[in-house]
Amino acid sequence: MKARHSILVVEDEPKIRDGLRDFLEFQEFTVTVVDDGLAAERIVDAKRFDLILLDLMLPNISGEQLCRKWRQQGRTTPIIMLTAKGQESERIAGLDMGADDYVTKPFSLEELLARIRAVLRRTDPARCVGQTFSFGPFCVNAQSLKLTCDSAETCITQRQADILQLFAANPGRIISREQLYEKVWHESMDGIETRTVDMHIARLRELLKEAGCKTELIETVRGAGYKYNE
Ligand code: CA
Q1: Residue finishing a domain among 121, 153, 170
Q2: What does residue 131 show for φ and ψ, rounded to 5 degrees?
Q3: What is the mean pLDDT of the chain?
Q4: Residue 189 or residue 49, greater confidence
Q5: How many domains does the chain have?
Q6: Are residues 108 and 88 in the same domain?
Q7: Spatial distance between the Cα atoms of 104 and 81, rounded to a whole number of angstroms
Q8: What distance in angstroms lies between residue 9's CA and the mean position of ligand 1's atoms?
Q9: How much of the chain exceeds pLDDT 90, in percent?
């Protein structure tokens, strides 16, 4: 069984907060709720969450300030902002505060759930696809670091397994070099790493070809990044 994802809900409106908690618990997430910015800051310092639902307008410290601060501190926990209709949603769209996504109130719970799942898929590939997953004609085992096609086995490195896992969790989606670097190397990209990513992808393509793949599974999307074609 997959481990439950833990979600922190930061929301000061009791009705929304309680509604979110009930709904998310029903969807089998582990839910923690807090009702102001200061409490959010404290609990994020103390505990690890898989995702944060962050209201924009909060007592003490705003959601925007929190989001910026966490990103400056290098925290990569995915954040979905909850914003009110009107000026806030427009500001959010234009602001690069480091949130992964946002929903505008009033939102439907189904829509929110779809976004939570999408963000978790993108940010937590290991849990999404598991340790054994398919990639094109291959079966990849990220634990034994083996790539199998028919009955031929090829050894891969941990990093290659991590890259394949990220692509497998995001079929058809463009992944930028920055995202790839962050998710696989667990550091934020500093400019020169563009080449590092490209070199790893080039090597991986060669390896897939040698292992018997006839099509290009990892496509280069000019100016944007890479895409896995299932
Ligand atoms: Ca609020």
Answers
A1: 121
A2: -85, -20
A3: 89
A4: 49
A5: 2
A6: yes
A7: 8
A8: 12
A9: 58
Where is average pLDDT lowest: 11-20, 63-72, 84-93, 219-228?
84-93
CA of 123 from ligand 1 middle (Å) equals 26
- How far, in Å, is the centroid of ligand 1 from the Cα of 93? 18
Q: 48-57, 73-82, 171-180, 181-190: lowest mean pLDDT where?
A: 181-190
Ligand 1 centroid from CA 54, angstroms: 9
8 bridge partner residues: 32, 52
Query: What is the rounded CA–CA span in Å between residue 76 and residue 157?
Result: 24
Instruction: With cut-offs at 50, 70 and 90, classify the pLDDT of residue 3.
Output: low
Q: Are 56 and 63 in contact (CB under 8 A)?
A: yes
Quote the pTM value.
0.66
Residue 137 lies inside a defined structural domain of this protein: yes
Which two three-digit tokens encode residue 229?
């074609």
Its domain, for residue 148, covers 132-228
ω into 106 cis (within 30 of 0): yes
Distance of CA 116 from the midpoint of ligand 1 (Å): 19
Last residue of a domain, one of 87, 121, 155: 121
164, 123 contact by CB (below 8 A): no
Ligand 1: centre distance to CA 36 (Å): 9
- 103-118 mean pLDDT: 91
- Res. 1 pLDDT band, cuts 50 70 90: very low
What is the DSSP code string of 117-184? HHHHHHH-HHHHH-SEEEETTEEEETTTTEEEETTEEEE--HHHHHHHHHHHHSTT-EE-HHHHHHHH
